[in-house]
Amino acid sequence: MDFTSLALVASAAYFLVVVALYALSAQSPICGFYARSLASWAALLICACYGVISSVALRISGYGGLSQWTTARAFKWTMRLFTGVEFVIQGEEHLKTRPAVFIGNHQTVTAKQSLKWVPFLGWFMALSKTVFIDRSNRNNAMAAFETAAQHMRSERQSVYIFPEGTRSYTAKPEMLPFKKGAFHLAVKAQVPIVPIVVANYSNLLHLQSRRFTSGKIPVKVLPPIDTKDLSAADVDDLVHRTREQMMRELVAVTELARSQRVALSSKEASEANGVASGADHRQRAEHRTTQAVAAT
To answer: What backbone torsions phi and psi does residue 255 show, to the nearest 5 degrees?
Structure first.
């Protein structure tokens, strides 16, 4: 059997396993977890391959800067089709701020060095001008940020960084301490910071509990934070202010989403029909809280 035939047989078997697990998920939630997990890996592989091809084609045609955008769009719709997970964005107008350092509570134009060697995904990231950060070597990391700052100024290129440094698996709306790299980069490049807050979605995806269901996840884009005329001496205060603002918004948007049964499974949403009418008052109060936080 040649490689092509073997790949087709393996793909067909993978597909049948996923379909079978989805079929069993109504009786067994654990089957739904594994079905969506396998579907997610398939989506990642498909979009990484697409990213490699599109990155080469776009760089040849002079539009290399669109590589990550087009691949991200493909992944968004593929994941929605394969898993039923959808992101609902508020404050989308702030995404027009360019160039900027976009920061989010952990998920890039920056990535840890080890991802560079992952087949397909690493190839796509390298071809799409990702800046890889070697966390084990501070000098190399700072040099990478210096290169990124120069590129941002000359090419008006934006970057997306997760300042927590690693994923947080907490089921509560919490964030890990922020690392300073993203803020030094923004100050060095003299570009604004645009915080992006994703509601805690442990009700949809929680690895420790083996839970993975479909649903909508709210995302709030906060107003840009100016770094003009700031220096390295201002970074500590900038980190503190930004994290406090994102933390308040994370709590507000997560509580509002859960009270409205947004980031919950279909089963949990149906159970919400029995919630007392007093929840309406709570939703209005949380909505006012969200508006107040966004205005700060």
So the answer is: -65, -40
